[in-house]
Amino acid sequence: MLEDTNYRYILAQDKYELSGSCRCQAKVRRRCGRIGKGGNRVIGEENKGRERILEGILDGNGEGAARRAERVVHEFAPVFDASSRVLMLGTMPSPKSRETGFYYGHPRNRFWKVLADVCGEETPVSREDKIAFALRNHIAVWDVLAGCDIRGADDSSIRNPVPNDMNRILKAADIRAVYTTGTKAAELYKRYCYPKTGIEAVRLPSTSPANCRMSYEELYQAYAQIRRVLTRP
What we know:
3-stranded antiparallel beta sheet; 8 helices; 233 residues; globular
């Protein structure tokens, strides 16, 4: 479908923040068309999106792909134990995470690096190392949703969400704070989980490669607050 993965397709009725090679050069656009390198729209594609349902999705591996919504069911077990103090919640595993079989699996996702730096440790690499790191530092990791319809890794396309039952963790662990890794996770938590948990979530910036406008230093400063909760007596 796409000969050049720097192209992004956009539907007129939706809007996505996409760019060539995820370099955040393209602006959000509502007109149906195609965006090439540097954010320049390619002439002649303005009216094809509605009929052909071509959508540009940042699909978790930094490449554009024409995708239709698919039903995705969460298959990862939550990471926690009785000593967990903070709960980190994403939205749903991305296609790349599902491919690698664990949370935040994209090699350019900065989740594990920023948490490791906040905790003063080396960045864990393997699935086993990540689990051991999280448990050792009293961090629980899960996602807000148990299932949804979604196009690629585009959280804005989520429809028919089914939330996870947060009591699975909250009743078993001494959770002192809940954090969401991104705006959509925060919105979904507030709508579907907060009425049942009564615990407000703190929204942190996304660690996804899609959030490439945020520098690592800014990301670290945002996530550093977790350390205060982890070290609180």
